[in-house]
Amino acid sequence: MRLLRSTDLALRLLMRLAVAGDASPTTREVAGDMDVPYTHAAKVVAELQHMGLVDARRGRGGGLTLTGKGRSASVGALVRTFEGEGDVVDCEGATPCPLNSGCRLRVALRRAQEAFFAALDPVTVADMVAEPTGPLLLGISKGPRAV
Questions:
Q1: N or C end of the chain: which has fewer CB within 10 A?
Q2: In the chain, which stretches have pLDDT less than 50?
Q3: What is the pLDDT of residues 88-116, one digit of tens each?
Q4: What is the pTM for the complete model shown?
Q5: What is the DSSP letter of 124?
Q6: What b/e readout covers 16-33, taking b as 16+ CB neighbours within 10 angstroms?
Q7: How many C-beta atoms surround the C-beta of residue 117 within 10 A?
Q8: From the centroid of its chain, how far is CA 72?
Q9: For 99, which DSSP code?
Q10: Kindly report the CA angle at 3 between 26 and 141, in degrees rounded to 5?
Q11: DSSP track, 27-74
Q12: What is the C-alpha separation between 38 and 32, in angstroms, rounded?
């Protein structure tokens, strides 16, 4: 299973904000640090803000901050939200699979997908930035370093 770019960016953005300390990087700064287009980062930030995981303030003194809910958010829940609940394979597409009515592969793939999510459920954003990851994240940021 491969994550969508938006899922990957959401996870990395939350990790980056988790180690930001008192700094409040802007969406543009975070996009630059992660080498992604600003518009893509802005869409992900908007979704994270809608979910209550990130506070985004405009103007002077503005920027992004991780909320308490964001710090304790389950990685499994985040991945489910960004990836959607769809099947791993599209059996109903433009040319429906002729085995659709009796295929066991679809069920097996659904179970595997749920096992993947379940393995991520107990992991939180705070867990992802525990030693040694947190200091490494600070090292790749181009902006001011939090201590």
A1: C
A2: 144-147
A3: 777 777 787 787 777 888 888 889 999 99
A4: 0.82
A5: B
A6: bbbbbeebbbbbebbbbb
A7: 17
A8: 13
A9: T
A10: 30
A11: HHHHHHHHT--HHHHHHHHHHHHHTTSEEEE-STT-EEEE-HHHHT-B
A12: 8
For the four alpha carbons of 69, 71, 72 and 73, in that order, the dihedral sign comes to: positive
pLDDT of residue 110: 87
Report the percent of the chain where pLDDT is more than 70: 90
Contact 5, 40 (CB under 8 A): yes
Task: Please check whether residue 25 is in contact with residue 63, taking contact to mean a CB–CB distance below 8 angstroms.
Answer: yes
Question: Considering only CA atoms, which of 33, 86, 36 is closest in space to residue 63?
Answer: 33
What is d(CA 96, CA 7) in angstroms, rounded to the nearest whole number? Answer: 28
